[in-house]
Amino acid sequence: MAKSHPGLLWAAICCLLLAVGAYFVAREQDRIRSLYGDAPQRISGAQLAEQGYGNNIWVELADVELLPEHVVQTRKGAISAVWFAAVPKGQAEAAREIKLVLRSTRCKSDAEIAEKFRPRDSYRGAVINPTLLQPYEPYRPLLKEAFSKLQLAPTIWEVDIDYLEKPSDKWASGFYAAAGTLAIIGAICGIAWCLVPRRTVDRVDHYALAEPTYAVRG
Questions:
Q1: Backbone phi, psi, residue 57, to 5°
Q2: What's the pTM value of the predicted model, to 2 decimals?
Q3: Segment 3-40, tens digit of pLDDT
Q4: Residue 217: pLDDT band with limits 50, 70, 90
Q5: Residue 193 in contact with residue 5, Cβ under 8 Å?
Q6: What does residue 148 show for φ and ψ, rounded to 5 degrees?
Q7: CA–CA separation, 99 vs 97, rounded Å?
Q8: What is the C-alpha separation between 84 and 158, in angstroms, rounded?
Q9: Which of 24, 83, 139, 181 shows a CA-CA span of 20 to 30 A to 75?
């Protein structure tokens, strides 16, 4: 009896699982890209804070000013994300509630933070709230500590100012192609696992039947 090939079975399972994962990522990339318009919409800080982003998360955020303090998330001693609370222009002194934050995950030093968030006429980025599969707000406890006198709105619009361009459709296409390739490889490995041992066993049985037998006669 020939041994089976567990390696083929594991290869089939792994490839099929990876194919499912790649397909999910491709669908998610398509979903996120569909939230972008053909061009960034110019929107004021007051509009975004009170009315939301509408049907286009790609924004040119104007008429805002940043509060002087910022909060930082670190990982293994290095800066992983920076958030600045933003308010409509001219309302910093009268602000009572935080409804809008700007984020960057590419700043690695104080100098880079100062340059990234320097005062300007507008900040281009993407409102990332609708891109998340579930709410993720690590900045809330940090903001609560840094701005103890300000309320935090139930919905805080988070604008990532690293997202300057619309995502390319090549990401989704690449993951769809990877999903198809992995699915084919997984199917081939699965078929091979089913057939190779059976053929080996049949061959062994055939040789066993053809082998001559001997007997001792008195």
A1: -80, -10
A2: 0.77
A3: 557 788 888 889 889 989 989 988 888 899 999 999 99
A4: low
A5: yes
A6: -65, -20
A7: 6
A8: 10
A9: 24
